Amino acid sequence: MTRTQALGLTAAVGATFLLSRLARASRAIDFAGKSVLIVGGSRGLGLVIARELAAERAHVTLAARDSEELERARVDLRDRGFSATTISCDVRERRDADAAIKQVIDARGTIDVLINAAGIIQVGPLEHMTIADFEDAMATHFWGPLFTMLAALPHMRRRGARRIVNISSIGGKIAVPHLLPYCSSKFALTGLSDGLRAELARDGFHVTTVCPGLMRTGSTYNARFKGNHRAEFTWFHLADSIRGLSVDARLAARQIIDACRHGDPELIITSPARIAVLLNAVNPALLARAMAFVNVLLPRGGHPNGDTSRSGWQSVSRLAPSPLTRLTDRASVENNERPTAASAPMKPSLA
Questions:
Q1: What is the number of other CB atoms lying within 10 angstroms of the CB of residue 25?
Q2: Is 221 a catalytic residue?
Q3: Which class is domain 29-334?
């Protein structure tokens, strides 16, 4: 390549980058006064996103299954000087999804931004997972977002900013051992979100697929564990607490809001997650071997009572919680990740 060709190529790349940045800036919206529905907004990442959007003077509506969690989230926002509407519903049921959307439309007239952030996490080896575990994950991560989007789309087409954000996961791009129901359903959500983006683009919609790595939301306590419950909870909770491997929930929420503001098609959060996606594209065989090695390090199945599902609250060990997990433990308090009736702490001897 001659010097002239090199300069020409450099100029072309620079111009392309500049044009892409200008195009991104032109898509930016102001959230002030916008009607934002956050499904799964009562705790964890959804609640953190709600705080950030409320601070930008958006009209926030939180939807979730647990009415007590919703009330605590409403009070949390009120104590910070913000207001929010709450809807107790189970969008995994289509009638509930339709009713929730109607309630927002009746109150606000439109939905400008729809954020699907509801999630469950089941952790443990395949031999302890049942068809019901996969069905529960699919209902939460695929059918719930689909029902909600189908109900919202006609109203968003008539009026609104037409922004949709689907919170998938790095587990929706790369399958992680001991998370099979979760990963399977997140792969489905990633495909749904990416496909809708293409089909809705001509109607002025911007659909953002978010694939975070580990985030310190405190949600590990409300995850469900099978197999060797304490060992599974310990590795998951410890990993979630490591700086660099996991990201602070507020930083993740701000990145998500920025991607939504500019209508970005995809957002991958955390450097380890981006590296894993790149490695999978460049050398999938190497990543497959790495995941197989990770699986060898994880707790083996066949544990007594391993088919029983327990929450993180019911699976604590000497290492989790401990000073090593301080960041995630603090996040659980900050982000309304309290034990529910179904996840209330047990009192076994620690092992």
A1: 9
A2: no
A3: alpha beta
